[in-house]
Amino acid sequence: MKGIDFNEFRNGWRLVLAGLLGTALGMPAIPFYTIGVFAPIFVEEFGWSFAIIFGGLSLLAGAILIVGPFFATLIDRFGARRVASISLPCLGLSYMTLAASNGSIEQYYLSWLAIAIFGLGATPVVFTRVINNAFEERRGLALGIVLSGAGLFAFVVKPLAQLLIETGGWRVAILVVGAMPILIASPMVLWGFARLPSRNASTEPAMSKASEGMTAREAFHSRYFWLLAIVFVPMSLAIAAPLPNIENILRSLGLSPSEVVQLASLVGIAAVAGRLLGGILVDRFWAPAVGTVILTLGAASCLILSLDHVSFPMACIAILLLGLTSGVEFDLMAYLVARYLGMRSYATTYATLYGIFVVGAFVGPSLFGYAFDSTGTYSGILEACALLLVAGAATILFLGPYPTRKTQAFA
């Protein structure tokens, strides 16, 4: 069994560190993991409903799906360093405008629209593109580390935001959080991406570069793209959707409030572990086989949670499996896109699949809420999620062996 190729990490550690901070302080991490902290304050301050407050997430999903693929062409044309270093400050400034909220729904949604548009250059599409170009033997592990940024941010930001609210008020808290992409992530991207290795020259248009893989048109007409879409649509619904509802799911199983809190806290830890473990596994084994195993474990988790009553140890196993599966999703997607579609139009193809995934992840929680309101239980929809994951686990195997491509030179 091969050890870690330290030469790749020795040459690319700056890229990994910059990408880690970029995903942690970029989009959708900044708005997605902080809106829940400020939502109760907006309810009390302005009398808004939670539906109105969380409606901003719908704008994010729509922007990523509709505008994201077109915006991704800027990454292919101007390079990851330039696009991300500009988008991150714009994202921070857009987020800061939420501090000026005065009760106007129109003003509130304009802030979210600005966040959605200006943050599109600071999504995982940008940072995974750089990592996929710079790493080969340990690409999966590098992707896992970079994409752990969002989970680490989620772990840190909630207590930090609460402390800022208690000491300076909610407007100060928003300004401080918004300053993070400007003062931390953007400078790190400028520094970390400044010494891209020669194999990553395709990210800088001023240099003579090499690109391999399909054009966007070829990718969208290939069976690989549609197989990946078929896999990631059910994956987004079945894995991402239960997470915002996890506390209520656990309560419905007859667990005590203290047990619910303990179990819910395991999700984030398991997700970070899943990102790293998934990255190591795809480096060592055929990635579709790894995906099949992981998705099957996720199906088992959904089946356990669909029961009427579950013991604490069984619930713990289910939560760990669910968190592990949710942690693998983005780096598996990035790895498979690079392997099967290539890097020639990576930003466009990955952005499209990422947009599809995000829509499912943002719409899914509402479907869970509707199912519970209608039936008083999550059993039916969790069983459906298990079936979707089993179907995805079987479908991903049809990708077949990794394609072999010739590198094509471009001026």
TrEMBL record:
<dbReference type="GO" id="GO:0022857">
    <property type="term" value="F:transmembrane transporter activity"/>
</dbReference>
<feature type="transmembrane region" description="Helical">
    <location>
        <begin position="109"/>
        <end position="128"/>
    </location>
</feature>
<feature type="transmembrane region" description="Helical">
    <location>
        <begin position="140"/>
        <end position="157"/>
    </location>
</feature>
<feature type="domain" description="Major facilitator superfamily (MFS) profile">
    <location>
        <begin position="1"/>
        <end position="404"/>
    </location>
</feature>
<feature type="transmembrane region" description="Helical">
    <location>
        <begin position="312"/>
        <end position="338"/>
    </location>
</feature>
<feature type="transmembrane region" description="Helical">
    <location>
        <begin position="285"/>
        <end position="306"/>
    </location>
</feature>
<feature type="transmembrane region" description="Helical">
    <location>
        <begin position="48"/>
        <end position="71"/>
    </location>
</feature>
<feature type="transmembrane region" description="Helical">
    <location>
        <begin position="224"/>
        <end position="241"/>
    </location>
</feature>
<protein>
    <submittedName>
        <fullName>Putative MFS family arabinose efflux permease</fullName>
    </submittedName>
</protein>
<feature type="transmembrane region" description="Helical">
    <location>
        <begin position="378"/>
        <end position="399"/>
    </location>
</feature>
<keyword id="KW-0812">Transmembrane</keyword>
<dbReference type="InterPro" id="IPR036259">
    <property type="entry name" value="MFS_trans_sf"/>
</dbReference>
<dbReference type="InterPro" id="IPR050327">
    <property type="entry name" value="Proton-linked_MCT"/>
</dbReference>
<dbReference type="Pfam" id="PF07690">
    <property type="entry name" value="MFS_1"/>
</dbReference>
<feature type="transmembrane region" description="Helical">
    <location>
        <begin position="261"/>
        <end position="278"/>
    </location>
</feature>
<feature type="transmembrane region" description="Helical">
    <location>
        <begin position="350"/>
        <end position="372"/>
    </location>
</feature>
<dbReference type="InterPro" id="IPR020846">
    <property type="entry name" value="MFS_dom"/>
</dbReference>
<keyword id="KW-1133">Transmembrane helix</keyword>
<feature type="transmembrane region" description="Helical">
    <location>
        <begin position="12"/>
        <end position="42"/>
    </location>
</feature>
<feature type="transmembrane region" description="Helical">
    <location>
        <begin position="169"/>
        <end position="193"/>
    </location>
</feature>
<keyword id="KW-0472">Membrane</keyword>
<dbReference type="InterPro" id="IPR011701">
    <property type="entry name" value="MFS"/>
</dbReference>
<feature type="transmembrane region" description="Helical">
    <location>
        <begin position="83"/>
        <end position="103"/>
    </location>
</feature>
